[in-house]
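Wed. Picked up where I left off yesterday with Probable GTP-binding protein. The coffee machine is broken again, so keeping this brief.
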Amino acid sequence: MPPKKAPEEVKNNVVAFGRVRKNLKMGCVGLPNVGKSSLFNLLTEKSNPAENYPFCTIEPDEARCAVPDDFLCDLWKPPSMYPAYLQVTDIAGLIKGAHKGEGLGNAFLSHIQAVDGMYHIVRAFDNDEVLHVDDSIDPIRDLSKSYALLFLLPDMLEKDQPVRDGTWTSAEIELINEKMQLITTKPTIYLVNLTMKDYLRQKSKYLPPIAKWVTEHGGFPRDIIPFSIEFEEKVNKMTDDPAALEAFYKDSKVKSRLDKIVTEGFTKLGLQYYFTAGEKEIRCWTIQKGCLAPQAAGVIHNDFERGFIKAEVVSYADFYSLCEGGKSMAPIKAAGKYRQEGKTYVVQDGDIIHFQFSELMPIKSVRG
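Structure written out below (tokens, as returned):
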């Protein structure tokens, strides 16, 4: 008898776990009163209550925020512009027994299970005027507590390892996705909320131990984004006064982290986008990483996938560097960077694509 094949291993569980669709959600989680609702309001330009007491948020709220990218829109200035969006959900604070459905009940668990990734907000500032559920500031204690409350699989708890970081076969991942809906399969970004003073000096006594804790629990340094609600709210108040904002940035020597938080969340979910561009419209189309050209065309319309012939492609970076400030593809073609791709082409993040379709199709091509 031939030897049995070894189980197939999936090396990137962050993308393999979860629901495969284009409108994935990031949820804001953490202990009560760490800045979740304030961050949600800043990201989504909403004005939900964000008061100085635990459990100000009870029911989750969902909104979307645009993934920042202005170059093509500023260049083409079309009548219609459709950016890519990230869905974000504001979830009530974690409490003891939350993983068993205590506190807000099983509805609380369903709120977290309904998102595909997590912004784990951690408080890293001392301020007696801002209440803390444990009456003292200790980010490592808070991280450990939140981490334990989110776990649903005991054998992974014993290993102190999220389910997403285990070694699984495709069949096992499919079973976990379908039957178990484990919270620890969800990719996580750790957002460390600093005082404005610490953010301006880009230094905090809490950051080194937080980084150590994250890397010891399956994360990477890139999964940590220091930011400051205090700083971001000040910036937000100046959005209608560009001159004052520019002067503030010049004086402070640091920028807002909101764009990075959005783009990192989008990327962490295994999402990317490509553009169709024309005189009338610039549009971003959200796809999964690894998507082939026909599948990417199918995001526009199912018929486009079935009738796919080829894709005329220029990378975002090539267009940016070669367009000479104009809309024409002539300089890109002259540089040999405008190419034709077939059915096996894996669409890259930021590609600008012109699809062509079968003559049997009602529509032969689309530019935007």
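Quick read: The chain is about 35% helix and 20% strand.
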